[in-house]
Write a structure and sequence with these properties.
Belongs to the glycosyltransferase group 1 family. Glycosyltransferase 4 subfamily. By secondary structure, this protein is of the alpha/beta class. The protein has 17 helices and 13 strands.
Length: 444
């Protein structure tokens, strides 16, 4: 199969597990004999003169990656005047580039990943070309940016074409100009007023996310739930082969440093533990501390200093994903304290494979992992409950070991990348057999 994957971010420039899994799947499909091409944004590339992003085409893990699209969700975003004209030209350029790739690569199937910040002009185009497409959903980006019928995506374009922008005195002139511009775009076959998104299949990484989308008015005729996978061979470390430090519990927080990820809850929990227990804890924090994360990081550091816990908390900074297996293997317990709408947290499964016990809030799809592996679940934001749980695990190291063993067993059985790729290949092949007739402008 020729598979075109589209994602807003792609390693080595990424924020979380959604993009990491996208790369793992792309490389696994390429190794399986398919021809995979990735289209992603220019995020992470240097900005040159006039703030024009440089473009890059590169080979990563045997996969061709085109960094061509613009991304409105992540900076740097420079002020432009007039902004509306700039944004229209940028989104149209991305749509035209996408059409060029369809004509050049001629994929058998299009696989959408995270489209947060990417123009939604792309979404109706596979149907126009008669190419089956499938969404892999790990985040509610479609709820946030598309809407039940595409109304959130089309709002901007309706205002543009109706001339509902700019100084009032020039709006009549703008309307005449934009009507001409809209007619020209329509002749290219690019939909801008209506955004029909009728994919062949929508695949959710957890039942929680499918329910969330349905509640947001996005109930697709064909949808299913498939658990995401993790490359077991990279992370696996038998629990029996780990080397614990007698009398000490090495605790890991891994993820972005934002309030909805809950690091402050862990800090407060340590402060609420009895001193003899707290002295036996070593907390490592693996996550970015610069840029958008700086303010929250400084707030947490101040609180650590107020509680006099500087010697038991270590900040590792942002750790490259390739180094995370060693980080997991040098810890006994992962605390996953998110309060946000999680898809199926990659970090939990990676830690379980590496022989870590896991304590979680079970937020979003995290509860589906917790229920399968019978993990301890604590209330969101409840630092006292977490403190008592940590004290209990210090008192009962055998319980900690048992949690690690049963979590590892479930991770190997349910969440391996090999298992995921086997199912995903079958899904893509079935979609390819259901090729649609092109609508309007499309294949020759």
């Amino acid at each position: 199969m020729k598979i075109l994957m589209v994602s807003n971010l792609y390693p080595p420039f990424y924020h979380g597990g959604y993009e990491v899994r996208c790369a793992q799947v792309a490389e696994a499909l390429q190794r399986a004999g398919h021809e995979v091409r990735v289209l992603t944004s220019v995020y992470g590339l240097p900005v040159g003169f006039g703030t024009r992003y440089q473009r890059a085409t590169e080979m990563i893990g045997g996969v061709r990656v085109d960094r061509w699209l613009h991304n409105d969700a992540f900076g740097p975003q420079q002020p432009f005047r007039p902004w509306v004209v700039f944004q229209v030209k940028r989104e149209l350029a991305d749509a035209r580039r996408f059409v060029e790739i369809l004509g050049e690569f001629r994929p058998d199937v299009i696989n959408w990943w995270n489209m947060n910040g990417i123009t939604k002009l792309l979404l109706p185009l596979p149907e126009r070309w008669g190419i089956p497409d499938v969404h892999w959903i790990e985040y509610p980006w479609m709820v946030d940016e598309y809407g039940a019928t595409g109304e959130k995506a089309s709002r901007f374009w309706r205002q543009v074409w109706d001339g509902a922008w700019g100084p009032p005195m020039v709006r009549p002139l703008l309307r005449r100009l934009t009507r001409w511009w809209e007619a020209r775009v329509e002749r290219e076959g690019l939909p801008t007023r209506d955004f029909p998104n009728r994919p062949g299949l929508v695949c959710f990484v957890s039942d929680y996310l499918r329910t969330l989308y349905r509640e947001g008015g996005l109930d697709f005729p064909r949808s299913q739930v498939q658990f995401g996978g993790v490359p077991a061979e990279r992370f696996f470390c038998p629990v029996a082969e780990k080397s614990p430090i007698p009398g000490v519990m090495r605790v890991l927080y891994a993820g972005q440093l934002t309030a909805d990820r809950g690091l402050h809850t862990a800090v407060e929990a340590l402060g609420q533990m009895a001193a003899p227990y707290r002295q036996r804890i070593r907390l490592s924090v693996a996550g970015p501390t610069e840029g958008a994360y700086r303010s929250y990081y400084e707030r947490v550091v101040r609180r650590i200093e107020e509680l006099g816990m500087g010697k038991i908390v270590t900040f590792l900074g942002k750790v490259d994903h390739d180094r995370m297996p060693d980080v997991y293997k040098s810890h006994d317990l992962l605390i996953f304290l998110s309060t946000r709408e999680e898809g199926l947290p990659l970090v939990m499964v990676e830690a379980m494979l590496a022989g870590c016990a896991v304590v979680t809030t079970g937020s979003g799809g995290a509860i589906e992992i917790a229920e399968l592996a019978d993990l301890p679940v604590i209330s969101k934001g409840d630092s006292l409950e977490l403190a008592r749980k940590l004290e209990g695990l210090l008192e009962q190291p055998e319980t900690l070991r048992k949690l690690a063993e049963q979590g590892q067993t479930i991770a190997l059985r349910e969440f391996s990348l090999d298992r995921m790729i086997e199912r995903w290949q079958a899904t893509l092949l079935q979609l390819c057999r259901q090729r649609r007739e092109p609508m309007g402008k499309g294949r020759d």
